[in-house]
Structure formats: C-alpha cells, structure tokens
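Tip: read the tokens left to right.
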C-alpha cells in the first residue's frame, strides 16, 4: 500500500516533495508539505482509491507520514468493501 501511495504522490505535480527519498515514517510537514499540497494529496488519494476522507480523518496527523496515510486509506478501502 505504501509503495502504491508513494508512486501516486511522486507523479502528482502539485505536491513538490521527493517521496522516493523520504522514509515511510518521515514527517511530510517537516519535509515541506504545505496545507495546499496536503489538500491536493487528499484529492489524489480519493480519486485513486475511490474513497472519501471523513471529517474525522481530516487532520494534520492523518497526512503527516506515508505510514499514517496508508493506515487511513486501508481503513477507508476496507469500509468500502
């Protein structure tokens, strides 16, 4: 799941981070993720995985690392199944 998310985000032009160089648990905000880029990331994830992040998951923590993102996407895809 993390590799799929990493690949998706590396290809997104509105998210200017080098995801290939970041550890799975690296803090994306410390790496330069902005609020605007986190919204773009959320939209890309929703489109790719056909999910919708509920308000309860719209937190800085959810998008702070690839591990946290993968956990959230896994929860949402399981709910949809």
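Filled-in amino acids:
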């Amino acid at each position: 799941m993390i590799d799929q998310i990493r690949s998706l985000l590396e290809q997104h032009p509105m998210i200017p981070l080098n995801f290939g160089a970041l550890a799975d648990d690296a803090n994306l905000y410390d790496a330069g993720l902005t609020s605007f880029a986190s919204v773009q990331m959320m939209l890309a994830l929703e489109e790719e995985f056909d999910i919708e992040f509920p308000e309860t998951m719209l937190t800085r923590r959810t998008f702070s690392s690839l591990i946290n993102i993968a956990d959230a996407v896994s929860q949402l895809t399981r709910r949809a199944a």
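The chain has a mean pLDDT of 91. The helical segments are 2-10, 35-49, 66-80.
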